[in-house]
């Protein structure tokens, strides 16, 4: 087998942040030629590639409709346009919660809803459609929270309200990475809120480290993927890549903070070279 792959990024960072350096090499070993392209580069024929892999499209949040139309125009997109539509709106957390997955308690506030009564203690307000921690803030009840909420709403956002999970400050988030529905590796991510945006302006720079997730974390990630596949009516194996971001809740048990099926950093630099080989293998499986 041989073929061609396009890895998709954005015009500001047309080859992503460098994390997947080893993946095109791993794909070349299996007979695939890879090139990078920005999703909005109209000179690129995305239909000509055997597989088009979303990797670093970090500017889609402000151009969500345009981005979704583009995903629908690409014949062999991974993950699929349907998955992208569902996963780019964090309202999916409520669906997964209803399906029995342990998610961080999430209240959705529509653009024309009035401010809720604020929870006791610290909480997070963030846009339902957002990436790279942009628009996310940590608050206690008061004017700053009200101003942040109304600012996001004025821009047309549905807003997520969640209790701040303080384990993020001590243990960070645990990101579990899956290729073709199968576990590959994990890494931890230090707390993001209050840190600076990268010079690209697209994301808050992440502080990552390798980690061996505890059994309860691995089990919850499996539950989240099974529930997602059931909700979308697909097989887990159809998900070329998935990153499940978990935090320890107040009682120490894991909770789902985010399920990334669009443009997660996959932490190849935090793990062994075989992770790139597993990704390449999963790409080939999508085409088999
Ligand atoms: N409920 C929360 N408790 C603690 N930290 C949070 C919470 N929600 C978000 N954060 C912090 O904000 C970051 C960005 O939020 P996230 O939901 O992952 O959105 P995205 O990564 O798509 O911007 C997280 O990586 C985490 O550090
Ligand atoms: Mg995140």
TrEMBL record:
<dbReference type="GO" id="GO:0046872">
    <property type="term" value="F:metal ion binding"/>
</dbReference>
<keyword id="KW-0547">Nucleotide-binding</keyword>
<dbReference type="InterPro" id="IPR011761">
    <property type="entry name" value="ATP-grasp"/>
</dbReference>
<keyword id="KW-0067">ATP-binding</keyword>
<protein>
    <recommendedName>
        <fullName>ATP-grasp domain-containing protein</fullName>
    </recommendedName>
</protein>
<dbReference type="GO" id="GO:0005524">
    <property type="term" value="F:ATP binding"/>
</dbReference>
<dbReference type="InterPro" id="IPR053191">
    <property type="entry name" value="DcsG_Biosynth_Enzyme"/>
</dbReference>
<feature type="domain" description="ATP-grasp">
    <location>
        <begin position="93"/>
        <end position="288"/>
    </location>
</feature>
